[in-house]
Amino acid sequence: MTSSQYSLLAAMILLPGLIGGAVIINKVYRGGDGWKNYSGETFELRYPKQVELTEEKRPAGLIVTLDHSIDYPHADPCDFKGTGAQLETLTDFHVTLSVVDRSIEQAAGQDLSSLTPVSIGTLSGYQIEHSVESCGFVSSYFDLGGGKTLAVERSLVAELSTITGTAADLLKNPDVVSPQEADAWWNTILATFRAK
């Protein structure tokens, strides 16, 4: 991915303690880039053409999942029990999004002072990482007003972390989404999010 394919949405990072929050640098793909449009019951957004989008209706509401994976049989780096679990694919991008009829505090289920403030595009909210050795996910909660919250979970990719030692070889495969490209996808998806 060349730098000409990106535009800078925000140009500074503030230390979390500086103003009690953090601003994320957002690199966003430009229009005419082959991205797909999604328009569902509760929101719309854009997402990369390489990503599979699925919808699942649950009692709590609609969950939209965005996935990218490649065939890559390997030992599960998050198998902390030592069962020898094998994975058939490398999932290098996995995000779920849902709009819930709850305040941001209720959706997060904990005191917001323990979460990190985050802003992406026009969305402002809080996030927290649930992980051990790059295995886990980041939960983000964005206030949509009117008692509604966008709840997002983004999986971490242990195989592409420095902990496993496999990242350099995996990133030689042009089908693997690098952490930097995944960040750009993430920022663009949320920057194009519009609640209905």
CATH architectural grouping: 3-Layer(aba) Sandwich
Strand order of the largest sheet: 5-6-7-11-10-9-8
Determine the N-to-C terminus distance: 32 Å
How much of the polypeptide forms β-strand, as a percent range?
35-45%
Largest sheet: 7 strands, antiparallel
- Uncertain residue segments: 1-27
From the alpha carbons, calculate the radius of gyration and give it in angstroms: 17 Å
Shape: globular
* Total helical elements: 4
How many domains would you count in the coordinates? Answer: 1
User: Looking at CATH, which topology would you report?
Assistant: Protein Transport Mog1p, Chain A
**Helical content class:** 10-25%
Rounded mean pLDDT is 84
Count of β-strands: 12
Could you characterize the architecture of this molecule?
- It is a single chain.
- This protein has a single domain, classed as 3-Layer(aba) Sandwich (Protein Transport Mog1p, Chain A).
- It has helices spanning 16-19, 104-108, 167-170, 179-191, and strands spanning 6-8, 27-29, 36-39, 43-47, 52-58, 61-75, 86-100, 116-120, 123-132, 135-145, 148-155, 194-195.
- By secondary structure, the chain is mostly beta strands.
How do you describe this structure in short?
The protein is mainly beta and 196 residues long.
Write the layout of secondary structure elements.
Elements: E1 6-8, H1 16-19, E2 27-29, E3 36-39, E4 43-47, E5 52-58, E6 61-75, E7 86-100, H2 104-108, E8 116-120, E9 123-132, E10 135-145, E11 148-155, H3 167-170, H4 179-191, E12 194-195
Antiparallel strand pairs: 1-2, 3-4, 4-12, 5-6, 6-7, 7-11, 8-9, 9-10, 10-11
